[in-house]
Design brief:
Order of helices and strands of chain B: HHEEHHEEEEEEEEEEHEE
CATH architecture of chain A: 3-Layer(aba) Sandwich
Helix content of chain B: 10-25%
Helix content of chain A: 25-40%
Oligomer: heterodimer
Largest sheet of chain B: 5 strands, antiparallel
CATH superfamily of chain A: Thiolase/Chalcone synthase
CATH topology of chain A: Peroxisomal Thiolase, Chain A, domain 1
Number of strands of chain B: 14
Shape of chain B: elongated
Radius of gyration of chain B: 23 Å
Largest interface: A-B, 62 and 68 residues
Structural class of chain A: alpha/beta
Shape of chain A: globular
Structural class of chain B: alpha+beta
Order of helices and strands of chain A: EHEHHEHEHHHEEEHEHHEHHHHEE
Strand content of chain B: 25-35%
Number of helices of chain A: 14
Largest sheet of chain A: 9 strands, mixed
Strand content of chain A: 15-25%
Number of strands of chain A: 11
Distance between the termini of chain A: 20 Å
Strand order of the largest sheet of chain B: 12-11-8-13-14
Chain lengths: ~400, ~210
Amino acid sequence: MARSMRRVAVVGAGLSLFMRRALETGKELSYYAASQALQSAGLRRQDVQAVVMASGPDAFDGVHMKGEYLSDGAGGWRKPYLRAYVGGGSGVFSIISGWSLVASGLFDVVLVVAEEKMSPTQPHPQAAFISIFDHTIERPLGPNLLWIFALEQNRYMHAYGIRNEEIALVSVKNKRNALDHPAAQIAAELTPEQVLASEVVAWPVHRLMVSPVSDGAAAIVLAAEEVAKRITAQPVWVEGVGWALDTSYWGNRDLAYPRYVEDAARMAYKMAGITEPRRQIHVAEPYDPFAYKELHHLEGLLLADRGKAPEDLARGRFNRDGELPSCPSGGLLGVGNPIAAAGLMKICELFWQLRGEAGKRQVHNNPKRGLAQAWGDLMQIGTVVVVGV
Amino acid sequence: MARERRSARRPAAKVSRLRKKTAKVPPQQAPGPIEPVVRDGLRGTPLRDAHVQGGMVSLERWEPKLEYRWDTGVAIGRFLEGLREGKILGVRCDRCHRTVTPPRAFCEWCFKPMDAWVELADAGTINTFSICFITWDMQPLEVPQIPAVIEIDGTSPRVGFLHLIGALRAHTVDGIRKEIRVGQRVRAVWKPAAERTGAITDILHFTPA
């Protein structure tokens, strides 16, 4: 990595509540999160030199150029402004985009905001995803987004002999963790039997293995080293970033293992000087839009052996008091999944965890370094950020 | 997006052939007032369905009508011509030695033109499948769709494409899982030649061989 890059820290974080349907517009939700992030850093909008905004498909809102529409709520008025958009990976990609603006020396203080308002799409936001499928050879088959996840989960289970009971434990853990999150939309105390008793939406996926439809926003403030040290006594440093895309011919790759997540993780680990991720990462927020995805991603991140993440989960390794707490926030399955905002919520969680400010959610291993990861685009991107104190 | 259902004609037609369950309507609950909530400093005003259905929120509606005419492209166009003739075509790259389908004009690994067209068998192996009880716009299905990634014979390992499994006896998860599994050999069931239009749906579905 180029030596000329500057150190960058997260110095503030904010969220709105995550809700199935919010009265607020996307701009208003963005304002809640952005103003709270600024307030937590003791900054005003005038102190921000540039704004990065992340939001998912324009089709959810029926608003083309959604990033520009949201700009006022993100604090972007008369500032250099940039939308980061890589589908579900957008939330984690937004901090990577903001980091590059500060690390390059272009700006000292950048506000990063992520928003999603999925509720406008009728009859259901899933319908907006029809247009991610190839218009000639996939759409005529009547595909839906659940297919992708269900097909991948079945391949993952088949490749390693994993049972659905083991995957249901992800929903149990994350929905329970979310009971302690003030933004949470669908926190619950459940048993694996209850997860498997929920209806099959697309076997092997049951309803309680799927993250909900959500409205919400998240924001962070990034600052260059010298500025960060003036703003806070507890900066959370961005130590490594990585992202990579696999082919858009998603049926032409190994569905049991996310190689592109490994590529992204290796890039971030190299930058962060991490040689033994399982010892050097103390808290993780992998992307969990579906229950199996958290396990799939932990393996791609090299934080578990291939096909062995379910065993690690069952023996408590990923609990808040475990060796590697995973999704202590409650994740997308518990807090909710306003898509871009859910990814940045994971960065907010690491910010609070590494500063010892996570309250009832605080993990027990006194973490010094954390990792967040998201997934998206056309089922093909991994985005990874490593932060530390 | 309501109109997209009409403009995206093929999926709508496909779905209409499948029996739909009547959507369950949850009993109306008293929604209570619409109030801003603050939890640990986090703000929002959650709405319930009853607030929306009960007219307690002002709404603006829009039903776009969108129409597109997509060019199939050089490679997929030839693939579709093959389907019309009852053939599944692939392409080969002589640098990475992969044979892939769906066909593409260039190898995305080697970033050079593909070297040859290859006629593949109209049979293959199930790489993975699902049993889906939901339509693309989240309407429930009584008779599930069974999407699968199928590795077509003659392609390189783990090169599959998306299609449907059909003509099974069972309609339940347990029953269907007795008829098909990952690794199952399947063959294409074609539309009668006179009805083929040069579309992916010229293959009606794949079925156990």
